[in-house]
Design goal:
- By secondary structure, this protein is an alpha+beta fold.
- 59% of the residues lie in helices and 8% in strands.
- It has 11 helices and 4 strands.
- A 4-stranded antiparallel sheet has the order 2-3-1-4.
- Helix 1 packs antiparallel against helix 4 and helix 2 runs parallel beside helix 4.
- The radius of gyration is 35 Å and the shape is elongated.
Length: 358
């Protein structure tokens, strides 16, 4: 196990991978896989030693006999995990380190099983019998277990129709089990932070925005789970918007999760009129997609006013449904506009032409 993990660390260094949660997960899973090849080799060499061969000869004969099955086992396991690293999109980028680390650990373990394990067997294993009570107890129990397994296997093979019907029932149930299990790329994690963004009318000033930030801060200060917070007015050069972050107490010191705090904040901030304010938690995979997960396209040959009314009706129903954390229409009529009605007769009497007015 140590040699396989050290070997895969060298492979990770060559591939430019870091030690992170995904590579550590791959190494933890690999611990249960890298021992298989060595176990097969050691058992075969031990069998030859018990049959009378010297340890060195048994190691050579046993390793040669089992070399092809070990190679097949290694390549089979690597072929199961490696293709995950060639997937495209976000999933491929996310799991490429996991897949190649796990496949690399299995390949290294196969090399170790065919080289180091036989050498160690030739030095450490020997044919000797022990009459201690512990050894006798172990041998008796293992022999009884082997006999029970043999009887069970014989009864199973003698009743193949029952086994096939049972296997078919399990196979059919896989579809329903798959539909019943919740599916999500990355569950939302409690990072201990809640984020708030707000936007006001396009013609609002920084003073207008700061006044509403003060109201939001009063609401945040009433949250018992909050430790500290900050707000920045005028984000991205827009005087009508602000951004803020709330740091929560450690998870063990609070009764509510970050998601529950976010939902409570969203309800409280809904009472602040004059700005559109939203509280949210960062996704577990940042930057997964810049777009919202659900979008509707509304098109019409009618006027923009009609289109705006229909879009607003959809947005209002989405908010009332309670199924959406955030909803927004991209069609707006809130851009500042000034209309001038020129009194041309008056301008003519005063001797001012339209170009000068312009």
């Amino acid at each position: 196990i140590p040699l396989s993990l050290i070997g895969v660390l060298s492979l990770m260094l060559w591939l430019g991978f870091s030690v992170n949660l995904l590579t550590l997960l791959a190494m933890v899973l690999a611990i249960g896989l890298v021992v298989d090849d060595a176990i097969v080799v050691v058992e075969n060499i031990q069998r030859h030693i018990e049959e009378g061969l010297e340890p060195l000869a048994a190691a050579l004969v046993g390793a040669r006999e089992i070399a092809f099955p070990v190679i097949v086992m290694t390549l089979t396991l690597a072929a199961v995990y490696a293709p995950i690293g060639f997937l495209g999109g976000l999933t491929g980028k996310l799991f490429i380190e996991f897949a190649f680390t796990l496949a690399g650990a299995v390949i290294v373990s196969g090399v170790v099983a065919l080289t180091l394990s036989p050498m160690m067997c030739s030095r450490l294993l020997r044919h000797e019998s022990s009459s201690s009570r512990f050894v006798v107890l172990l041998d008796r129990n293992f022999e009884a277990l082997k006999l029970r397994y043999r009887r069970l296997l014989e009864r199973t093979l003698a009743n193949r129709p029952v086994v096939l019907v049972f296997a078919a029932a399990i196979f059919v149930s896989l579809f329903f089990l798959f539909r019943a299990v919740p599916q999500e790329l990355a569950p939302l994690e409690d990072t201990g932070h809640v984020y708030i963004v707000g936007s006001g009318p396009l013609n609002s000033t920084i003073d207008y925005t700061s006044a509403y930030v003060t109201q939001v801060e009063r609401v945040v200060e009433e949250v018992p789970e909050a430790v500290r917070h900050f707000f920045v007015s005028g984000m991205m050069g827009s005087a009508n918007s602000f951004f803020g972050m709330i740091e929560l107490k450690p998870f063990a010191e609070r009764e509510h999760s970050a998601a529950e705090v976010q939902q409570d904040l969203a309800a409280r901030l809904g009472g602040v009129s004059g700005m559109r304010i939203n509280a949210f938690n960062m996704p577990s995979i940042p930057g997964a997609s810049p777009d919202l997960p659900i979008k509707f396209v509304v098109s019409s040959t009618g006027s923009y006013e009609l289109l705006y009314q229909v879009a607003k009706d959809i947005e209002l129903k989405a908010q009332k449904s309670g199924l959406f954390v955030y909803s927004e229409s991209e069609l707006r009529f809130d851009k500042p506009e000034v209309r001038l009605d020129i009194d041309r007769d008056k301008a003519a009497q005063l001797g001012i032409d339209v170009a000068e007015i312009g």
